[in-house]
Design goal:
Elements: E1 2-5, E2 18-20, H1 23-30, E3 36-38, H2 41-72, E4 76-80, E5 88-93, H3 95-103, E6 114-115, E7 120-122, E8 124-133, E9 136-145, H4 148-170, H5 173-249
Parallel strand pairs: 4-9
Antiparallel strand pairs: 1-2, 1-3, 5-7, 6-8, 8-9
Length: 250
């Protein structure tokens, strides 16, 4: 179904645009919520009559949204929550919680304007989009911690990390080249050292094997000599015994 938008809608268009949407979406949401009209001849004529009024209204909404952005943009919002040792929250932080936070400060931000794919269920530093209008978006910094002290610590860690990344990005081409060359040289040195160590280990193993073989040969040779010596001694004893017997017989 084709409809005429009466207000700017994200992913659809701005005031006065004629767009095609699913019938159910038009009948169940856009038309009942007075966000659009069926794009027939009668409604097109009607739109021309109220066009200026709608444009002025849209302009005011945008201005109000920009005023809110000035108050909250890039500001850090701290939520103190109880959590387990591994950082899991006993509960969660939802768009409704964030909306209530601003409501207490007299700032009207509906939960539907807060873009969270799912509720926050762990401590940490988060950046989320607040879409107050199809044309007005701002970034909100959300610091979820177990205490004010931990919140400051998390912020400091994030700042240090960003500074490190910024330093890397700001390196001149020459510095980057020098860093890459140094890294390559270090990598090459490590590789050569590893190869040398492997070669030395191989030589040591070969020498050990040779020593073992020599030792085995020496042992065998010694055992052989011992056996020969024992055999000679046995033969000598037999000869002596034989001679003694002969002498006795005489």
């Amino acid at each position: 179904m084709e409809v005429i938008l009466l207000e700017s809608l994200d992913k659809l268009g701005t005031v006065g645009d004629i767009v095609k949407v699913k019938n159910g979406f038009a009948r169940n949401f856009l038309i009942p919520q007075k966000k659009a009209l069926r794009a027939n001849k009668e409604n097109k004529d009607y739109y021309q009559k109220i066009k200026n009024e709608l444009l002025e209204k849209n302009k005011k909404i945008i201005n109000d949204a920009n005023d809110i952005v000035k108050n909250i943009s890039d500001k850090e919002i701290i939520f103190i929550r109880n959590a387990s040792d591994n950082g899991q929250l006993y509960g969660s932080v939802t768009p409704k919680d964030i909306s209530n936070y601003f409501r207490e400060k007299k700032i009207d931000i509906k939960p539907s304007c807060i873009n969270l794919h799912s509720a926050i269920k762990k401590i940490g530093f988060f950046e989320i989009n607040i879409k107050l209008h199809a044309e007005v978006v701002c970034l909100l910094k959300l610091n979820v911690a177990t205490s004010e002290e931990n919140a400051k610590k998390q912020k400091k860690e994030l700042t240090n990390k960003k500074e490190d990344l910024s330093q890397v990005k700001n390196d001149t081409p020459k510095e980057k080249e020098e860093t890459e060359l140094k890294n390559d040289a270090d990598k090459k040195e490590d590789t050569n050292k590893k190869k040398t160590d492997e070669k030395n280990d191989s030589v040591k193993n070969n020498l050990k094997n040779i020593d073992d073989k020599v030792s085995q040969k020496v042992v065998k040779k010694t055992e052989s000599k011992k056996k020969i010596s024992e055999k000679i001694d046995d033969e000598k004893i037999i000869d002596d015994s034989t001679n003694a017997t002969k002498e006795t017989e005489k």
